[in-house]
Amino acid sequence: METPYTSSQTYIDEFDPVDYYRTYYHPEEGAMTGEWLHFALRNFHEIFTSGGVKGDLLIDFGAGPAIYQLLSACKNFNNIITSDFLEQNRIELQKWLRNDPDAFDWTPMVKFVCELEGNSDDESCKRRIEKIRRTVTKVLKCDALKKNPFDPVEMPQADCLISCLCLEAPCKDVESFTNALRNLKALIKPGGHIIIQSALNCSYYYIGKKRFSCLRITKEEMEASFKEAGFEILKVKIIACTENPKTDIYNQDSYYFVHARKPCS
Ligand SMILES: C[S@@+](CC[C@H](N)C(=O)[O-])C[C@H]1O[C@@H](n2cnc3c(N)ncnc32)[C@H](O)[C@@H]1O
């Protein structure tokens, strides 16, 4: 069944961060805590411990209500600006950053990353959480469809931009995806990095009873978009999605990781 395009207004009205977290990231019930998170967290671990991607500013684009994507990255940057299109997601991010009692629990993901680094004792996990809370200096509104995604805020160019499971949400077609990548490119310093991890061949995902559309993009289209947007691709990884959720809450067949660079001139 074709899923009609989910408009920005529908995101504003119907994306519920509590349902989203419960459906995908809740430690017991979440449908994406296995294959997806292990893939994404391992890739971030590898790239941010290899030493080549570091600097002053990291932009975390379209974070939703999530912080898992910062667990390895936070060690390599002096300043992190995280962001999402939706106010309700930015509120959840702020709650976690303030350590509010009802903030979402990301402890299993913190433990997983600390284990990858070989220090999964409680003290190391606690220090990692504190490091993220200290390094994230802003939570901003972003819109991938705008030429300046942070308009009206003028952003300093970043050494690196990361984004997970985001661009396929607002982009209607491959052309719009390529344009969104061009918009992100302007936020990055010449020679700076972009790391995107997301789903391939996915046309919808559910949050509670609400079905959201997703850009059904193939590996070939995704790589061509990066090139057309003017990035130099350094590494691509794909894994098949073999985990079948109990219900048909999403329909991706694989996940991708792309590490690319904005050329120096
Ligand atoms: C599937 S969620 C992914 C959230 C999170 N990054 C994660 O890894 O779970 C899709 C995200 O796209 C965001 N989004 C929707 N429209 C957007 C737009 N025009 N620009 C940027 N992000 C948008 C939503 O707010 C939501 O956080």
List keywords for this structure.
globular; two-stranded antiparallel sheet; Rossmann fold; alpha/beta; binds S-adenosylmethionine; 265 residues
Per the CATH scheme, the topology name is Rossmann fold
Strand order of the largest sheet: 3-2-1-4-5-9-8
- Name the helix and strand elements from N-terminus to C-terminus, one letter apiece: HHHEEHHHEEHEEEHEE
Q: Give the distance, in angstroms, between the N- and C-terminal Cα atoms.
A: 45 Å
How many structural domains can be distinguished in the coordinates?
A: 1
The CATH class turns out to be Alpha Beta
Q: Specify the structural class.
A: alpha/beta
Task: Give structural notes.
- This protein is an alpha/beta fold and 265 residues long.
- It has a single domain, classed as Rossmann fold, CATH 3.40.50.
- It contains eight helices and nine strands.
- The chain has helices spanning 8-14, 17-24, 35-49, 87-98, 107-116, 122-135, 174-185, 219-228, and strands at residues 55-61, 77-84, 136-141, 158-164, 188-200, 204-207, 210-213, 232-240, 254-261.
- The strands form two sheets. Strands 3-2-1-4-5-9-8 form a seven-stranded mixed beta sheet, with helices on both faces. The chain has a two-stranded antiparallel sheet with strand order 6-7.
- Strand 4, helix 7 and strand 5 form a beta-alpha-beta unit.
- The radius of gyration is 17 Å and the shape is globular.
- The structure holds S-adenosylmethionine (SAM).
- S-adenosylmethionine (SAM) binds next to helix 1.
